Amino acid sequence: MMRSATPGATAATGDDQALVAALRQGDEAAFETLLDRHHGALVALAMHYVRERAVAEEVAQETWLAVLKGIDRFEGRAAVKTWIFQILVNRAKTRGVREGRTVPLSALANPDLDGHEPAVAPDRFLPADHPQWPGHWASAPPRWDVDPEASLLSGELRGWIEDAIAALPESQRLIITLRDVQGWTPEEVCEALGITDGNQRVLLHRARARVRNILERHLSAN
């Protein structure tokens, strides 16, 4: 079921409130701070909804204009980051519809509709209540732990990971990009996309499972 907010959503912090106050006073440094923090991620997220990077850049620019125009109406019921990305998602969806490309919202709202079951047994992942790495792999794929530093820094391995993510169904690719590539919290994902925590967890698990399966095949073959 789609929804507009997450129970227990994170409200604006003291840092957020200071930034908002500065923006309302026309402080350019405050705006540059937000640009540095979020512009790249805004463009990356927009790319999930539109076909061309140039269009994604336009959507991001439109989002910043909307932020500046709407800052006086910001009420602090959500974090500034969440508010900004919600604006981006709404605008990107509109452009995506215009271009004939959209993330399947039905799959985000109901992961069972994407038809992809986990490709790795659940016990290969750490439990959801793990104190440091909830839902991450419980052990390294074959040969990863032989020389983990060299493997992680390997351009070849990074390429496999990027290719594996790119091959995922769109809804899974969006969630794993936000969670594991951009480092969003579950709450931030749910608030920005308007989905339940259960839905984002299912999509994330399936995405991680498929990526791990692909990496294991590559590493076992070398």
Describe the overall structure.
The structure is a single chain. With 222 residues, the protein is mostly helical. The protein folds into 2 domains: 14-99, RNA polymerase sigma factor, region 2, helix turn helix motif (Rna Polymerase Sigma Factor, Chain: A); 105-220, Winged helix-like DNA-binding domain superfamily/Winged helix DNA-binding domain (Arc Repressor Mutant, subunit A, Orthogonal Bundle). 61% of the residues lie in helices and 0% in strands. It contains 10 helices and no strands. The chain has helices at residues 14-24, 28-46, 53-70, 80-99, 105-109, 148-153, 155-166, 170-181, 186-193, 197-220. Helix 2 (28-46) packs across helix 4, helix 4 (80-99) crosses helix 9 (186-193) and helix 7 (155-166) packs across helix 10 (197-220). The radius of gyration is 19 Å and the shape is globular. Mean pLDDT is 79; it is low at 1-9 and 142-146.
Provide the fold topology.
Layout: H1 14-24, H2 28-46, H3 53-70, H4 80-99, H5 105-109, H6 148-153, H7 155-166, H8 170-181, H9 186-193, H10 197-220
